Amino acid sequence: MTTNQTSIEFSSAKYSGIEKDQPFLNLIEITVIRSGNTDNFDSVELHLGNRTAQEGSDFGGIFPQPIDFQPGETEKKVYIDIYDDFKREGTENIELKLIGNPTILGQQYITTVDILDNESANISFEKAEYIVTEYDPNNPQVAITLTRSGDLNNTVYAEIQLGGGSANYEEDFSGIIFPELVTFR
Fold first, then answer.
1. I want to staple 105 with a disulfide (CB 3.0 to 4.6 A). Which of 7, 26, 109, 165 is the partner?
2. Torsions phi, psi of 160, nearest 5?
3. Closest CA to 65 of 96, 20, 110, 108
């Protein structure tokens, strides 16, 4: 993209929020960014794509929703309200798409919103990526953190397995035996 071109896209490929049993709004903030030439008025529309979450019972918002950038504006926020439907469903998702002039849509014109179920336990890695250097005597280990949300009242188990990558177990790394069972109490 040259500085004379305009690009409008989501700031992230994925967003997430958790259902909450509360009497007030439970909003997920979605950021749409514009880069390149910001001297003109530009407009796109936010549309729903494929989804497992149900509009009206799992989430609410205005769709389609216009997103207008005035000259000089580089960021817009849109909000999706997450509802607690009091059903044990696991994680559901919403695909959001930016629709508009194809010459101004950036590469990240589609994003996914995960709605974590508060009636189910949700376990995830704290980070999407952990980067370490080969053996460093000052830091011989890397701490990989799992987080739990949703139902915190019951014991939950998660199994960590190896999958993909170019590093070889015992040759490039060691420490735990896979699969590793993790218990949340």
1. 109
2. -95, 130
3. 96
Note whether 75 and 7 are within 8 A (CB): no
Give the C-alpha separation, 97 to 169, whole Å: 40
pLDDT in tens, 154-165: 777 777 887 777
Quote the tokens at residue 76.
């817009």
Look at residues 13, 73, 15, 14 and name the one whose alpha carbon lies nearest to residue 43.
73
Distance CA 102, CA 7 (A): 10
For residues 165 and 2, give the distance between their C-alpha atoms in angstroms, rounded to a whole number: 34
How many other CB atoms are found less than 10 A from the CB of residue 117? 21
pLDDT digits (tens, 9 = 90+) for 25-70: 999 999 999 999 999 999 999 999 999 999 999 999 999 999 999 9
Residues 55, 59: Cα–Cα separation, whole Å: 5
- Rounded to whole angstroms, how far apart are CA atoms 174 and 169? 6
